[in-house]
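Sequence in, structure out. Go.
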Amino acid sequence: MKVPKCFGIWGNTEKSAFWELLPDIISWTEEKNLEVHLTTRIRDNMEDPQTFSYQVIESAEDFFKLDFLLTLGGDGTMLSLARAVGDRNVPILGIHLGELGFLAAVNVDQMFEKLDQVVAGDYLVQPRIVLKSTVYNGGKSSTFFALNDMVIDRGKSHRMLVYELQANNHVIANYKADGLIVSTPTGSTAYSLAAGGPIVVPTMRTMIVTPICPHSLTLRPIVIPDDQVLKISFPSDHDDGIALAVDGQICEELGSGSKVEIQAADYTINMIGFPGSNYFRTLRKKMGWGRRGDM
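Output:
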């Protein structure tokens, strides 16, 4: 793999652990003779921003200058970075500072060992599919992108949603449910899993459709190839109270008669992995996969 010469840091500046680690990371960059780029948010929150040499990431176009991005925080930090990077193909290495940290697979105690591997070119780039959602709402259209999932739910309403789901213009089902989750394989261990969806290896190219509390004994989660275009439509007389959540971080309220199209984006997010890493070992460690009773 490419041996990096410069990289960027994207972090959750509200976590004290981030500020505790930053000086050590800067010392490591000086030792390795690497150029480091910081976000404006990091620069603006530093007590003394002139204590070391760095460049500033002023806009998303500055990502093109970087060989990789180091993100420090929880899964939310990783998701926000993925949307910011978009189609710029910069590999991301996630360092976990949160509670569970399924996306940011490297722990703090492994950080410099893994960074040394990246600098030596001993790493893998794993492409992850991204969802593109086009929302037609009140005569206007909006586009959103998600690494984890798109969730349609009843918002502030207390009534079930009524909606139709199609794939490539073929009706899959008509639903009465609290909502619908469309997730990537990366997001299959998030909300979709909690709603009864399957675990899907994150490098696969599929979409997972999981209804939320369907009023039916037969409507189950399904896995769909990523070459399909999903269409979710609501009756024109549907009461207000429909909401779209993008990676749990962006919310859009939908009116009656709205339509949502979801498909794989024409780009992927590149995650840095390492030879010998094992997805199912991570499942066992972080989520208790395969555990029986108190074992």
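Check: The longest strand covers residues 259-273. The CA atoms of residues 226 and 287 lie 26 Å apart.
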